[in-house]
Design goal:
448 residues, 7-stranded mixed β-sheet, two-stranded antiparallel ribbon, binds adenosine-5'-triphosphate, binds magnesium ion
Length: 448
């Protein structure tokens, strides 16, 4: 526990108030993870809390949400949220309590929290405060609502997705009653703002248990992402594919590293297959051009969820190109490098590896070996800093004007041809050779 958190607790205690670290940070400590942030709960009211810290040096007070009882203390540039014990009033919009009231007992504050593993507090002298069996559930790897699950989800539908998120991130199971309530109430997720859905979804996708959660709760996932609904149970009738489209999406998502761009790409890469599907006369299924349909579906989902544009655009590029044949030689590799850049190209290789692994018909060792060989080849190529775009060419338009080629469209055309010749390694990327070649090309055009 950071010293500042201990200081905050001690200072509140000395002033006669209770104080504990609480929630996610206690959970993370108990499972050996480093907490992202430290939350503190206290019996002091916000005003009392401010009074306790007013005179303290090296501590800045920010009134974050006074009506919710939260004061942020910034110490050493780290924010600590200090929140007064509170209980939530009734919920009428399936998301926000209509009111909150401050309460006097820690237990009441813990009882309003979502899951047993998130409803523990800790004090350096008193140890872990665990009224709802959070430690036992952590040991058993269970996500369980505090109190009656259906009531807790009915109050705040976002908790449904948080349950799936925690189960994915920690690779936990979902306790039976909690599971039943999820399946009963998931449609109430419509009441939740898309931004909040995306925040949870992003973590869910990057969790270790993502395949199990995508496979175990397809109806919930497809409620959030209706673009994927036609994929559920959609059989591919193709010898290369063992699984339905949805299963393949779930399996290949789990095969890329836990990165938002890569996981989202896999989740959508084949989403357009049902739209593009045809059966040939032999009864074999095809989905020619499905990548373009997938791009459209991914775009519609990502815009709805307010996914940031950088993530969105990279996902769209990778979905668009996921099915392109692998480059057969160095020249093809350079061309693709010039088109999409090194970072996207390395990502595309991850995507194609995961796609193969998610089909269930390829030998894993072979896929891994080919992937390693291919990425090594690309890295070696990138280390050479080859000329792959007009920008890398050792001459530019001005240079061509300088040797007497007149301004106009021809300059651009000649530069394009020079790049092609350099890519094909017919001409070295050197000024002298390129200018000579440019004059030769110009002369040839003159003749025509
Ligand atoms: P993370 O590690 O992602 O921050 P977290 O559990 O800390 O996970 P926060 O959103 O930071 O999640 O919330 C802090 C704590 O507040 C939770 O541990 C939980 O006790 C409580 N909490 C958060 N959201 C809800 C909610 N929707 N309903 C009930 N309790 C909640
Ligand atoms: Mg947190």
């Amino acid at each position: 526990m950071p010293e500042a958190a201990e200081q905050i607790i001690e200072r509140l205690n000395c002033a006669g108030y209770e104080a504990y670290v609480v929630g996610g940070c206690v959970r993370d400590i108990l499972i050996g993870r480093t907490p992202k942030d430290w939350d503190i709960c206290t019996s002091a009211s916000p005003v009392e809390c401010e009074r306790v810290f007013e005179g303290m040096s090296a501590c800045r007070i920010v009134e974050t949400g006074l009506q919710h009882g939260t004061v942020t203390l910034v110490m050493d540039h780290v924010p600590y949220e200090v929140t007064t014990y509170r209980a939530d009033g009734s919920y009428s919009d399936h998301r926000h309590p209509d009111s909150v009231r401050f309460v006097h007992a820690l237990r009441e504050d813990l009882a309003r929290r979502d899951f047993t593993v998130n409803a523990m507090a800790y004090h350096p002298k008193e140890g872990v405060q665990d009224y709802f069996g959070g430690q036992e559930d952590l040991r058993r790897g269970l996500i369980r609502c505090v109190g009656q699950a259906s009531q807790r989800f009915d109050e705040d539908a976002l908790r449904i997705l948080r349950a799936l998120r925690f189960a994915s991130v920690y690779d936990f199971s979902i306790e039976e009653e909690t599971d039943r309530a999820i399946r009963l109430l998931y449609e109430t997720l419509s009441h939740v703002a898309e931004e909040r859905i995306w925040q949870e979804m992003q973590k869910l996708l990057c969790g270790r248990g993502v395949e199990r959660i995508l496979m175990g709760y397809p109806e919930v996932i497809c409620h959030i992402l209706p673009e994927l609904k036609p994929c559920m149970g959609f059989q591919q009738h193709n010898p290369w594919h063992h699984f339905s489209v949805y299963e393949h999406l779930a399996k290949s998502t789990a095969q890329v590293p836990p990165d938002t761009v890569l996981r989202l790409t896999m989740l959508f890469h084949d989403a357009g297959k049902p739209q593009a599907f045809t059966l040939d006369e032999k009864g074999v299924g095809h989905a020619y051009g499905h990548a373009d349909y997938s791009v459209r579906l991914a775009l519609s989902a990502m815009d709805r969820l307010h996914v940031d544009h950088k993530t969105r655009d990279r996902v769209l590029l990778l979905v668009r190109d996921h099915d392109l044949p692998m480059e057969r030689n160095r020249k093809e590799m350079k061309r693709r490098l010039g088109k999409i850049g090194g970072e996207a190209f390395l990502q595309l290789m991850e995507v194609q590896r995961a796609d193969a692994l998610g089909k269930g018909t390829f030998n894993r060792e072979e896929v891994e070996r080919a992937h390693l060989e291919r990425t090594n080849r690309l890295r070696e190529l990138m280390d050479e800093h080859p000329c792959v775009t007009l920008k890398d060419l050792a001459v530019n338009g001005k240079d061509l004007l300088g040797v007497g080629i007149p301004a106009g469209k021809r300059i651009g055309k000649i530069l394009d041809v020079l790049l092609e010749e350099v890519l094909d390694e017919r001409v070295p990327n050197e000024r002298e050779s390129l200018l000579k070649e440019a004059l030769f090309l110009y002369g040839k055009e003159e003749e025509v």
